[in-house]
Amino acid sequence: MQSMRIAVVGGGSVATSFLFHLVRARVQAQSALPRLQVLVFERAPAVGRGAAYADDAPTNLLNVTAGSMSVAEDDRQHFLRWLHRQAITHFQGEQITHDSFLPRPLFGRYLEDVYRETCATGATLGVDIRHVREAVHDVRADPPAGYRLVTQQAEHIAQRVILAIGNLSSAAFEDLRGHAGYFDSPYPVRALARGIPRDATVCVLGTSLSAIDAVVALAEVGHTGPMYCMSRNGRLPSVRGLKNQPVTLSPRLVATLAEGVAQGRRLTLREAMGLLADELAHQGIAFDELLDLQAAPPPATDYLQEEITLSSSRPRQWQSLGNALNAVVDAIWQQLDDAGRERFDATLRSIWMARRVTFPIENARRLQALLRAGRLQVMPGLQSVAPVPGQHHQFRIQARDRAELQADVVINATSFSADARHSDLPLLRNLLDRGEACPHRFGGLCVDFATGNLMRSDGSINADISVLGTMAAGTYFWTNSMDVNARLARGVAGRLVQELCASETRAERTCPI
């Protein structure tokens, strides 16, 4: 084979991690390989940031520490070393350490640099990477050439396709779109804060990380009007402990899960929770902060005070275990039976998210100050939101206990969607309509667990199209974590290079000399 063309659809953090690992796998390959031409389809001016790490206000912090963020699956210090090379040593007057929470836009700068460095390294190895500022509307099989990628401007041929299209827009509150005063997303928070009158009454729909980003951004620009955060359960995330120590998973758990995947074993939700309980006991981690997960949360001021106190005073090792479980969370999800997954989705997912996803103590203190000053309220029981008929910039928000409030501005901070069935993206619609892809009942597209390859509606596997990121969420569960996505990206890139090596070896054996 003289050359191969690979199309990467999407140019955010997951695509960047794939490209990084592809070039690194090419470096490590011991045999001669064909030249690789890589087309990265991304409409933004630069590859790397994606929407998640776009240029934005510095208050928009990562929810993972600097020493745990990296495009490299097996090199967690990659981002920290980049910071040192850039002579970026302090943030907000504090020295940057492994445990610092840094701005998302800064990580975006790192991603752009990684992409540029990857392109430069690739060029010396016969891996030519080119940015195509077009959106792919369709991917069609075009044998024997490969696949035809259709954009509004042109058509491109590739032999392999990597779908890394990122997050879908929120599917919630679609009936509010287009109404004056409604924001379908809090991002970019800098534009959000500038676009809202400072004395407006603001209702943020959601109480998770996105909602916190919105509130902190408004407070930072001096917003004086009342602010409300409302969700069904009213739960704020946990605060990241300042004294946490790393946790290494027990070999027994890792071996049990690997064996279960190999044997196609299925677990009930109770059995899966039993495995986690055993691991907690093995690690000597107390259950005291996890026992009452389904109980109604206390008032936000009390909750934050307890969280700030706990996070400042002692290790919260269950948080460290949660981070360590990223290495096997997809294996647990893969083995969980459908009844267990449905029960988890219905009763535990929102609670699990509030505990598993932590946020920096700096933002916890900001929220606490706003709550104590009476400038912010966090409320459970969200029922409905509707524009007030005949009134501009007025919304009526209804709660479960018949409480009602009116707001001038409503911000949808209920996070992104992974539901491919209701997406209006032409690419997804075309693949689904033709049966070249099928929606996963738990999010994204159906993907083969072992390979990351796309599954068709008839259950067959397309070995030439791989799926990474949010559109693989139904299969791998935790695809909004950089380290999980880097691990999956490394696997797809490594398998691709191994296949090329095997193909070249077969060609040499059959070629007459």
What does this entry look like structurally?
The chain is of the alpha/beta class. The protein is about 35% helix and about 20% strand. The strands form six sheets. The chain has a six-stranded mixed beta sheet. The protein is globular, with a radius of gyration of 24 Å.
Features:
513 residues, alpha/beta, six-stranded mixed beta sheet, five-stranded parallel beta sheet, 21 strands, 18% strand
Terminal Cα separation, in Å?
17 Å
What strand order characterises the main sheet? 5-2-1-9-21-20
Strand content: 15-25%
How many beta-strand runs?
21
Low-confidence stretches: 509-513
Overall helicity: 25-40%
Arithmetic mean pLDDT: 92
Task: Please give the count of helices.
Answer: 15
What about the largest sheet? 6 strands, mixed
What structural category arises from helix and sheet content? Answer: alpha/beta
Coarse shape:
globular
The gyration radius over C-alpha positions equals: 24 Å
Secondary-structure blueprint:
Blueprint: E1 3-9, H1 13-28, E2 35-41, H2 78-85, E3 90-91, E4 94-95, H3 104-123, E5 127-132, E6 136-142, E7 146-151, E8 155-158, E9 160-163, E10 182-183, H4 189-194, E11 202-205, H5 209-220, E12 227-230, E13 238-239, H6 251-263, H7 269-283, H8 300-313, H9 317-324, H10 329-335, H11 338-356, E14 358-359, H12 361-372, E15 376-379, E16 382-387, E17 395-399, E18 404-407, E19 409-412, H13 426-433, E20 453-455, E21 461-467, H14 473-476, H15 482-510
Parallel strand pairs: 1-2, 1-9, 2-5, 9-21, 10-19, 11-12, 11-19, 12-15, 13-14
Antiparallel strand pairs: 3-4, 6-7, 7-8, 16-17, 17-18, 20-21
Helix pairs in contact: 1-3, 1-15, 5-12, 6-10, 8-12
